[in-house]
What we know:
- By secondary structure, the chain is mainly beta.
- It contains no helices and four strands.
Amino acid sequence: MSRRYRINDLVRIGRGKRVYRVRHVFPTGEVKVEADAKHPDAAKRVPDEFRSYKPDELVRVES
């Protein structure tokens, strides 16, 4: 079953180290991320600003 994310959830892309904030959730469940998370491992930039990620590509982070 695929996960549903909400705006402002903290996520990692795959098994990456950096943490991103969910910026936009499409009706299809795909997610756009932003690099402004309040977290010690927060990313400074998004790898691809125009890409949307499928829920299975992301891992939720407990804040």
